[in-house]
Amino acid sequence: MNERLQTAIAAARAGGAILRARAADVGNVRTKSSAFDMVTEADIASGVTIVRSIASSIADARFVVEEPEVYAIAGVTHGALDDPEVWVVDPLDGTTSYIHGYPCYSVSVACLCSGQPIVGAVYNVPADEMTYASLGGGAFLDGRRLQCTSTPTIRESLVITGFPYDRTITLDKQLRVFGHLMRSVHGIRRDGSSAIDCCHVAAGRADAFWEFGLMPWDLSAGVLALTEAGAVITGLDGTEWSVGVGDVCTANPVLHSELLAAIQTGLRG
User: Fold this and answer.
1) Are residues 14 and 129 in the same domain?
2) What does DSSP assign to residue 190?
């Protein structure tokens, strides 16, 4: 296991330990982009712990972190997604679940080189599961190598999605797609952590995942697990995924094109 991957796993586990310790008292809760987009004191504490863990191993590390307070508190350097090397951190993916005590939230840590994820770790805290991947080195769940499914059709598939903080036009689009696919698939699941959702597809627990409006810290580690497990991930318009793409569709290679076409049909209403 390479040094960067070991660093990502250790940092994700350290952030998860903070979340677990504070689960009974998340501290003050405030809103960000909307009344449904929330941040807690536990988010910040987890973020500070994660970046300090990485910085202790990599002295010149640069960061992109979901919660901006973390930079000043931890005394680390703000980076950019296209830096030669940058660490992209989501200290708590699934804040709403965490606040309500619903057991599905995660820590996501990825290292990018010029926009390409090269290592990633997603720690599913309540399940105590660590999914990790390195570019060209495969994806693993607690040491077990991962492979996506080979389910050939939508009608045989289990699909995962999430719902956006934007409860206006973006939600309207999502509901149109949801209604169309719900009539076509075995089932649709929604747990509230896109990082975990990506890992479930990588692990073969579900066949596909789509969502609107995700951010780089939501996806960077999970995308690497997906691609290393053999899945295909693109934008909802079918273009190749890059770190700036937030409307995404991922599935096994056999299923992906059919799912993408079904999503486009749903969008057209």
Assistant:
1) yes
2) -
Do the beta carbons of residue 212 and residue 164 sit within 8 Å? yes
Q: pTM of the prediction?
A: 0.94
Q: Is 141 a domain residue?
A: no
CB atoms within 10 A of CB 80: 10
Answer yes or no: are the C-beta atoms of 262 and 171 closer than 8 Å.
Answer: no
129 and 166 together in one domain: no
Q: What is the DSSP string of 114-182?
A: TTEEEEEEEEETTTTEEEEEETTTEEEETTEEP------SGGG-EEEE---S-TTHHHHHHHHHHHHHH
Residue that terminates a domain, selected from 107, 136, 165: 136
Q: From CA 38, how far away is CA 30, in angstroms rounded?
A: 6
Sequential DSSP letters for 191-249: -S-HHHHHHHHHTTSSSEEEESS--HHHHHHHHHHHHHTT-EEEETTSPBP-TT--SEE
In a structure prediction context, what are the per-residue pLDDT tens digits for the chain, which is 269 residues long?
Answer: 699 999 999 999 999 999 999 988 777 766 655 555 557 889 999 999 999 999 999 989 999 998 888 999 999 999 999 999 999 999 999 999 999 999 999 999 999 999 999 999 999 999 999 999 999 999 999 999 999 999 999 999 999 998 877 667 778 888 898 888 988 899 999 989 999 999 999 999 999 999 999 999 999 999 999 999 999 999 999 999 999 999 999 999 999 999 999 999 988 87
